[in-house]
Amino acid sequence: MPDVFWSWLGSFLGIFAVYYLHQQWASPNDLVMVIGSFGATAVLLYGVCESPLAQPRNLIGGHLLSALVGVTCWRLFSANPALAGALAVSLSIAGMTLTRTLHPPGGATALIAIIGSDRVHALGYLYVVIPVLSGAVVMLVVALVVNRMAPGRTYPRKWF
Description:
Layout: H1 2-26, H2 37-47, H3 56-77, H4 81-98, H5 105-115, H6 118-123, H7 126-149
C-alpha cells in the first residue's frame, strides 16, 4: 500500500507542477505546456520508476527525439495528416530503439505534433523545448525528489 501513496503523490505533484507552470508562464505567452503524453510519462516515472523505460535517458531522449520527428513530419506532410501521423509514430519508435531511448509516451508526443491544435502547430520546433523538454525536466525533478523519499525505491537506476 505505501507504493500506491508514493505513486499517487509523485503523479499528483508532477502533473500539478507542469500545469502550474503552464498557467503562470506558458499560457500568458500563448504557449502550450501540458500535453497528453505526460499522463503516460507519469505512470512510468511514479508508478514503475525502476523500469528501464522510466530512466532519465529514456524520458528526456525519448520525448526529445519524438518531438523532433513529429514536428518534422508535420512540416513535410501536413497535407496528409494520416501519413504524417503514421510516419511520426513509426519513425519515433525506430529512432528511440536505435538510440536506446525508448519511452513509450514518446509515440504520443510525436503524434501530438500532428494532431495538436493550430496553437501546437504554430510552435514549430519550439514544441521540442516548450512543452516537451520543459515538461519532461519538471517531471524528472519531481521523480527524483519523490522517488528518493519513498522507502525501497531507487530512482534513477541509471542516468545513461
